[in-house]
Amino acid sequence: MQATLRRTVSFAGTGLHSGAPAHVSVTPQAANIGTWFTRTDLSGASMIPARFDAVPQSQLCTRLRGDDGAEVSTVEHIMAALAGCGIHNALVAVDGPELPILDGSAAPFVRAFLDAGIQHQDAPIHAIEILRPVIVREGEALARLDPEDGLHMDFTIDFADAAIGRQRRVADLANGRFVRELCDSRTFCRKADVDAMWANGLALGGTMENAVVVDGDEVLSPGGLRHADEAVRHKMLDALGDLALAGAPILGRYTGVRAGHMLTNRLLRALFAAPDAYDFVECSPAQAARLPGVGVKTADLADVA
User: Fold this and answer.
1) What share of the chain is helix, strand, coil (3-state, %, to 5)?
2) Domain 3-120, what fold?
3) Which CATH code of 3.40.710.10, 3.30.1700.10, 3.30.1380.10, 3.40.50.720 fits the domain covering 126-301?
C-alpha cells in the first residue's frame, strides 16, 4: 500500500548555499498525488514536481524548477528521507529558494517523519522495474542501473584526501536499512573547496556543524566522523534522493562510481528515453515488502544522530 504522513511536520534552519533562513512544512497528501514542492514566499503558490525532468543543470546540489520558473534547491536529503521512510505522497512547502541543510544529513527529516507516524493508504504501490542495463559516463565517473529484485546500491568514491580516500559500500536497501545505516551520514567537502566557495559567495550557510570538512588526512569537524566510511554512505543517501525523482520506487541495482547529482539525473533521463529498459509495474506483495521504507520504525534510529 502507498503511504503518507499522519500529520504535518515542520523544520527551520538555513540553506547551505544561500545562508538564508528557511522554514519548511511537509503535509500529508492523498494517494496517487506523489511528492510536490511549493514556494510559499511567491505569489500564486507555485507547484514544483519532484521529478527528474524538472531538474535543470546544477552541480553542488539537486534543484527543481516548476513550469513557471520557480525553483527550490538542495532537495536531495528530504527526498531521500521520504523514500527511505516509504512515503509516496507529500507536499513540501518552503518559504525560500533552498531547503535548510539542518545537520547535513537526512536524519532530522527521518526522525520527524517517524515521530509523526506513517499512514498507509488504500492504493497499490507502482514501481519502475529495470529490464536491462542502462549506463551513463562522464570521464572516470559512471552511473548505471541493472535488473534486480529490489533496490540495491553499489557506490565507490575515490578522493586524494587521506581522510576520505577510496571507499566502497554495497547495500540492499530493503527493510529500513537506509534509516539504520545511511540517513545520519553528512555531506562532506575539502577545506580548500570550502574556502574557494566562500570566496565566490557560495556555501554561505556551511559550517563545521552541518558538513564533514577534511584537510588532507585531518577531519576538521568537531566530533570527527559518525562512520569510518561516512563519505560513501552520504553519496548513497544523495543517490537515493536523486533516484526518488523517478516518481516511483525503483526495482533495480544502482551502481555509482564517482557519480554525483547530475550524473544520476542523466541516468534517469537515459532510462526513460529507452522504453525497452523498464516497465511500470504494480508491486506484488513480495516486491512491496522489499522496498526501502517497509517496516521502518523509530527504534531503527536508536544508534544514529
Assistant:
1) 25, 30, 45
2) Ribosomal Protein S5; domain 2 (3.30.230)
3) 3.30.1700.10
Q: Which residue is associated with the grid cell 517496516?
A: 295
Catalytically active residues, by annotation: 261
Of 220, 213, 261, give the one whose Cα is nearest residue 239.
261
The model's pTM is 0.94
**Cα–Cα distance, 105 to 15 (Å, whole number):** 13
Q: Which residues of the chain have pLDDT under 50?
A: 305
Q: What are phi and psi of 213, to 5 degrees?
A: -105, 125
Q: What is the pLDDT of residues 31-53, one digit of tens each?
A: 999 999 999 999 876 899 999 99
Collapsed DSSP state (helix, strand, coil) of residue 43: coil
**Residue appearing with cell numbers 511567491:** 42
CA-CA-CA-CA torsion for 22, 246, 301, 110, nearest 10 degrees?
Answer: 20
| CA pair distance 111, 298, nearest whole angstrom | 7
Residue type, 45: A
